[in-house]
Amino acid sequence: MPDTPRLLDAIDRRILGELCQKADLSFAELGERVGLSAPATHERVKRLRADGRIKGTTAQLDGPAIGKPLLAFVHVDTSGWGKSPELMNLTELPELEEMHSVTGDTCMLLKVRLQSSQALEGFLSRLYKVTGVRATRSYVALSTYLERGVQAGISEELLETPDPSIGFVEP
Amino acid sequence: MPDTPRLLDAIDRRILGELCQKADLSFAELGERVGLSAPATHERVKRLRADGRIKGTTAQLDGPAIGKPLLAFVHVDTSGWGKSPELMNLTELPELEEMHSVTGDTCMLLKVRLQSSQALEGFLSRLYKVTGVRATRSYVALSTYLERGVQAGISEELLETPDPSIGFVEP
DNA sequence: AATGAAATTACCGCCCT
DNA sequence: AGGGCGGTAATTTCATT
């Protein structure tokens, strides 16, 4: 299975664009939107899955509506680096949604969605029991203005050479 | 429309647990897993949608496989507060996946997925053009160990009173 | 265009107020 | 008696060849 089996054409992108917003379309409906017959569309989607472009389809749950009104991002400073088995154990907690190692002043970035601030305290307490965890910094979400999965589109705009006369620095 | 129309029972939670992992099960299959007939399961799912527990279903795209290998979290310092129309314009960029206002030393937290580091530069450049944006700090993901949507489960573990003898502080 | 599977509706019965 | 909920059967829509 090659890494980039085939190139995506315009129709593939439109299919991905539709499916990442609403995955429960019928193939007939999806085909109509992209200008293909149902079976042809089905074939495309099967290919996109086989090529690993589409990893699967999931239901989007509403955090507050299922009892998890609190969203937080936790930066973690560790003494060691990367994937420790102990750290990976946290993965079993359904409250943990993301775990990335990142560049910058911290090593690990976690995204957690919790029942309450008490649960956040419980989570941090759990985190500090992991050997190698030095310190944490938490950012609690006050409002979420946008939250969605990977989008198919790509902006030309961002690839333009930035105007050097404007200039910016990260401190 | 009441905020919490009905309470979730054990079967609802199991349905949510299945669907947030794999939303393209047949109702027959899903029903088998939770111990209900297909129509009864369908009824439950319809209710969970109507009550806003399930917001929709989406395809999970693979970032690298669709040409976006770079994931970054950008903390933004703004002079004003909250939702400015100018900031909300960024929402149109498919590279922007999340935007939250957060507690802590920065005001806004963004999640972006991009084609390249050049595109990240382009994005930051675009960001600095928004009035009120003072400074940014970017965390680029080196490895993603876990990335998933809202999970249905809730850990009892985190609600236990933390052992006060351990103790921890956020600096 | 045809076949088989699945979603969806209709309708009936049970249980617990 | 009635409302909520689940089961079976019938129908329509959709996936798949």
Describe this structure in words.
2 copies of one chain form a homodimer. Chain A is 28% helix and 27% strand. By secondary structure, chain A is α+β, with helices and mostly antiparallel strands. Chain A has 2 domains: 10-58, Arc Repressor Mutant, subunit A (Orthogonal Bundle), CATH 1.10.10.10; 64-140, Lrp/AsnC effector binding domain/regulation of amino acid metabolism (RAM) domain (Alpha-Beta Plaits, 2-Layer Sandwich), CATH 3.30.70.920. Chain A has a 4-stranded antiparallel β-sheet, covered by helices on one side. In chain A, a hairpin with a 5-residue loop joins strand 3 and strand 4. The model of chain A has no long low-confidence stretch (mean pLDDT 93). At the A-B interface, strand 1, strand 2, strand 3, strand 4 and helix 5 of A face strand 1, strand 2, strand 3, strand 4 and helix 5 of B. Strand 5 of chain A pairs antiparallel with strand 3 of chain B, so a sheet runs across the interface. Chain B binds a DNA duplex (17 and 17 nucleotides) through residues 26-28, 36-40, 42-44.
* Name of the CATH architecture of the largest domain in chain A: 2-Layer Sandwich
Rg result of chain A: 21 Å
Query: What order do the SSEs of chain A take from the amino end to the carboxyl end, as H and E?
Result: HHHEEHEEHE
Number of helical segments with 4 or more residues of chain A: 5
Distance separating the two termini of chain A: 43 Å
The portion of residues assigned to helices of chain A is 25-40%
- The assembly state of the depicted protein chains is homodimer
Query: In the residues of chain A, how many domains can be counted?
Result: 2
Structural class of chain A: alpha+beta
Q: Quick one: which chains have the greatest interface?
A: A-B, 93 and 93 residues
Largest sheet of chain A: 4 strands, antiparallel
